[in-house]
Each structure stands twice: as C-alpha cells, then as structure tokens.
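Our preliminary data section would be incomplete without showing what the modeling component actually yields. Below, a chain of 174 amino acids is followed by its predicted structure, encoded as tokens that our downstream tools consume directly.
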Amino acid sequence: MAQHVDFSTVQLEKPHAILLAHGAPTLTPEEQGFIDNECAQLCELSNDWDTTAIWQDLSPQAWSYIKEHGFLGMIIPKQYGGRAFSAYAHSQVIMKLATHSSAAAVSVMVPNSLSPAELLLHYGTEAQKKHYLPRLARGDEISCFALTSPYAGFPMSASSVKACMKAAKRSAFA
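Predicted structure:
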C-alpha cells in the first residue's frame, strides 16, 4: 500500500543560490591574452570552407599552430607542459574558435575534455603523468575517443572494436 509523504515542511536550499554565491567566472590575464591573441590567430588560420572543401581536415598550418601554442594542453598543469587553464577559459576558447571553424573548435575541445589527460591527472602514477602529459600537451600524441563503430551504433556497450598498432605513416601533419 502506497504511503503519502508530506514534503510541505521540507526546506531545500535553492540550487541557483549556491551558484550565485560564487559570483561570475572570470579569466586570468594569461587566459584572456590567449583568447585575444592565439585564438584570434588560429581563427585566421582556419575556416569551415577550407576545412571541408580543400583539406577535409584542418590545414597543416592550423595543426602546427595548435600544437606549437599549447591548445592541446589547456587542462594540463604547467609542471607537465600544459597551460593550466580553468574550465571557464576552456569554454571561452572553444566558443571563440567555433565562430570561425567547427573543426578547429572540436579538434581543440576533445583532447581537453575527453582525453586521457583528465584521467591521468586524477588516477595516474607520477611516472605515467611525467611520460604522457607533456606529450599530450605538445601534441606529440593526440588522443581520441571512439564513440561508435560501424556495427554498434551509439551505445558504447554494444561496441566491439579492436585496435592494432601498425608502423606509423608519415603525414603532412606530423
């Protein structure tokens, strides 16, 4: 038999009050400078037309710029070669890039959000952090995230993809 529960006397703190108590997020001068300068330059190097019609990817110049200027290491601490930017700065960088090139925005967003860097920071050994984080921050290695496969569709649990290492082919993007 179902019971009636009277919640009229329960006081819940309003969730938005907690957020408002922290104030509006702000960028550090370093983060703002990166958006004003490096992001603006990457926007000049990339646009959706060239990405789609010419390269079917970002241009080699855009990829070089991304790697050289630390776009792939925004969430990685400085001690491992990253920029140590806030989540707010990361979102502002992606927003700025998306105004010129969705490919640039996604290419910078994914390694800073779905990559193993976050997991390594929380759960990796110091040896793993010292080995992988600088390589990810410099773009020597670019992480990826496989969300689907030709036989599975969307649910990750249905995926049965196998990976194998082959000798790397030298590309224009290396």
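The two ends are 67 Å apart (CA to CA). The chain is about 45% helix and 0% strand. Preliminary results of this kind motivate Aim 1 of the renewal.
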